[in-house]
Design goal:
The protein is α/β, with parallel strands linked by helices and 312 residues long. The chain folds into two domains: 64 residues, no CATH class; 216 residues, no CATH class. It contains twelve helices and six strands. The strands form two sheets. The chain has a four-stranded mixed beta sheet. Strand 3 and strand 4 form a beta hairpin. Helix 9 runs parallel beside helix 12. 32% of the residues are buried.
């Protein structure tokens, strides 16, 4: 891929220097000892002595006149959005030269997906809300719960963020035999595809449709949703190639190799020794390659309606 010296996205959230949990205990009703006292250093840093005193006295007065318990009030103060903001404040992650390049690559790919989807949404008379991409190591807190590197990259509709442990790129190459920068880009674009599904209301419709279904029937809907995300990844590749000449010879094959490598049938055969189609949740290697190719060749959302066909 011709990705060097291109614009990087500003929507990267680097949590590699932190561990999950962190300030999570502040969200409970821990009283002043477990709440504000632990927040004082941060309050001093941003408000200074005078501002901090004013804030604390104001909270005390509010608690007194409202009849509430100060412990509960301050415990709640540390939860919600404030907790999320504090969790994201951390020291820069230590990284190798290789990791630094990987981060730059991720930033460029994310920026290019933004360019593609901003344009397509505008053409459809809508605004594209860009997702944030969270880099982490090992495990990470998300609105969808605790994410772990062993799960691979994932998208959380609850906070509209993509989560990625850079170690997955090594796993993709060594374990799945799918090397190459476009293979890595395909993975990012697939997760961004889930964000597009969220914005279009597709994800919510799928979740509603799953209610009351058998496990096998619900899995089939999941397969269609994942295959559509593959197709959306192909849409990005289509525009990245034709509009910005980002792709080089061999890139498409790298992407197809990656799509094939993480097909349900191949993964099940490698881990179980046998294949159970009724338990597929992402689609077979052949299906994933097919829908990625459809997106690459046609480049339109309309071409990616995996829910309107009997032939996946």
């Amino acid at each position: 891929m011709r990705w060097k010296n291109r614009r990087q996205s500003s929507n990267i959230e680097d949590r590699r220097g932190s561990s999950p949990g962190g300030l999570g205990s502040l969200g409970g009703r821990a009283g002043i000892g477990g709440g504000v006292l632990r927040l004082l250093p941060l309050m001093f840093r941003f408000l200074g002595m005078k501002g901090t005193v004013v804030v604390v006295l104001g909270l005390v007065a509010f608690s007194y006149f409202s009849g509430g318990g100060l412990g509960g009030l301050l415990g709640g103060m540390a939860g919600g959005d404030l907790q999320a903001d504090l969790t994201n404040q951390q020291a820069p992650a230590e990284q190798s030269a290789r990791e630094k390049e990987q981060v730059e690559f991720v930033g460029v790919v994310l920026a290019d997906t933004e360019e593609t989807w901003n344009k397509l949404f505008r053409q459809g008379g809508a605004n594209y809300r860009e997702p944030r991409l969270v880099l982490y190591r090992g495990a990470v807190n998300s609105a969808c719960g605790l994410g772990q590197a062993a799960m691979g990259p994932f998208y959380c509709p609850g906070d509209q963020k993509v989560y990625l442990d850079l170690g997955f790129f090594d796993d993709l190459e060594r374990r799945h035999d799918a090397p190459g920068d476009f293979a890595q880009a395909y993975v990012i674009a697939h997760e961004v595809g889930h964000h597009v599904q969220t914005l279009l209301g597709i994800s919510e419709k799928v979740q509603r449709a799953k209610r009351g279904l058998s496990k096998a029937a619900a899995n089939q809907l999941s397969v269609r949703q994942e295959l559509q995300a593959d197709c959306f990844a192909g849409i990005w590749g289509h525009h990245a190639s034709r509009s910005r000449q980002l792709l080089e010879a061999g890139d498409i094959q790298e992407g197809l190799n990656a799509a094939s490598a993480i097909g349900d049938d191949r993964l099940q055969r490698e881990t179980r020794g046998y294949v159970s189609p009724e338990s597929f949740t992402h689609g077979s290697s052949k299906q994933r390659m097919r829908w990625f190719t459809i997106g690459l060749e046609q480049g339109t959302v309309a071409a990616c309606d995996t829910f309107a066909t009997d032939a996946l």
